[in-house]
Design a protein that fits this description.
- The chain has two domains: 82 residues, no CATH class; 114 residues, no CATH class.
- The chain has 236 residues and is α+β, with helices and mostly antiparallel strands.
- It starts with 30 loop residues before the first helix and ends in a 5-residue tail after the last helix.
- Strands 3, 4, 5 and 6 form a four-stranded antiparallel sheet that branches. The protein has a two-stranded antiparallel sheet with strand order 1-2.
Length: 236
């Protein structure tokens, strides 16, 4: 059956301070149900607005808010009555179902700052103390060893970990080795390290992994954009 599709006009929630996810639900409505939903929404603004002053977007918003509000209110009532399966030992299994079907969005990659550069002096085995510019994105050299050679001095930015269900897949960071032996290796680059992740997968879990990798691909593109701006001298 093919029918016209409208919405969602805007997300709706009952003033939740930190929503976890946005879920879209499609309703198949008769004209009478549509009219009833609009009437329920309009009663709250009837004192301020005439029916002919409503825009199409406002009409659809009132209908969608009525449908969403009734669903959320009923859900809150269920939450108050139900024990979430605790009494039946379902809670852990249902929590895992939520994690699988509604994975939390990945955190955005660490911002790459670009401010005024300072300097740092590091001891080396072959050139003694070496003073070099320290970019603002460098996380510091607290783990520096004086036994390293000057060509191995490297600035490291904050690591961004890309994981799947808690297991590390990749780590990404900005690096610079200003005294590298080969000149082409002395620039500011993104260093990517791959973890030794392995596992056995069902079709469903393989789809989950694919979805995770899709999300990480977007994060790597964001990281590339930030790196490009950093190389151009921009500020994050």
């Amino acid at each position: 059956m093919s029918v016209p599709v409208y919405g969602p006009t805007e997300p709706f929630g009952l003033d939740e301070p930190q929503p976890f996810i946005e879920v879209h639900v499609a309703y198949l409505l008769t004209r009478q149900q549509l009219l009833t939903a609009l009437e329920a929404g309009y009663t709250e603004i009837a004192a301020e607005r005439t029916t002919d002053s409503l825009t199409n977007a406002e009409i659809r918003t009132e209908v969608e808010h009525t449908l969403a509000a009734s669903g959320v209110i009923d859900l809150d009532r269920l939450m108050q009555r139900a024990d979430g399966g605790e009494g039946s030992g379902w809670r852990a299994g249902l929590e895992a179902c939520i994690d699988r079907a509604y994975p939390a969005p990945a955190a955005p990659p660490a911002a790459l700052p670009s401010g005024t550069e300072g300097t740092v002096t590091l001891a080396t085995a072959d050139h003694g103390d070496v003073t070099l510019p320290e970019p603002s994105w460098c996380r510091g050299h607290g783990d520096h060893s004086p036994t390293v050679h000057r060509c191995d001095l490297t600035h490291y930015g904050t690591e961004t970990l890309l994981t799947h269900q808690g297991a590390e897949l990749f780590r990404v960071m900005v690096t610079e080795s200003p005294f590298a032996t080969r000149p082409e290796h002395r620039g500011v680059v993104a260093y990517v390290e791959q973890a030794s992740y392995t596992g056995d997968f069902t079709p469903a879990s393989l789809y989950d992994l694919a979805a995770t990798l899709d999300g990480h691909a977007d994060r790597l593109r964001d990281f590339a954009d930030q790196l490009g701006r950093l190389l151009d001298g921009g500020h994050e």
